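Need C-alpha cells for this chain, all 155 residues.
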Amino acid sequence: MQKTSTKILNILFLNVPITLVLCVFAQMLSIWKGQAASFNMQIFGINCAIAYILATIVGLAFPSVHWGMIFARKCGAKDGSLVFALLMNIIVNTIFTLFLSLVMTFVNVYIVAGAPIIAVLFGVIENFIPIWAVCYIVSFICSPVCQKLAISLTK
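Here are the C-alpha cells for all 155 residues:
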C-alpha cells in the first residue's frame, strides 16, 4: 500500500505532461480545423493552468488507479505485467480525459468563444477519441517515471 504523500506527488507529477500534451494537442486539433486565427498564448496558458488544477482534483477525488487495477485483474492480467499496465491505464486515462475534455471544451467553446452550449457536446464528441489516444500514450510512458520519482521523494 502506498503512502498518501506518494500518491499525491505522483498525481502532481503525472499531471504536468498529461495536461501539457492535452492542451497542445487540443490546440493543434483546433488549428487543423482552420481556427489558427483564434490562437492566443494567454488563453493557452490559462487552459494549461485550468487543466492542471482540474486533473489534480480528479486525481485526488476519484480512485481511478484502484478502479484500473480492478479492471485489469478482472480481465485476467497478472499484476506488474505489461498487459496489466495497459489495461489499468485504459480506466485511469478514460476518467481523466472525460473530465478534462468536458470542462476544457466547455471553457473554450462556451465561455471563451461564446458558442452555443450544443457546440460543447459536439466538440467533446469530435475530439474525445484523438485526445484520449494521445493522453493514453503520454500517461503510459510517463506514469512509471512519475511513480518512481514520487516514491524516491517520500521515502
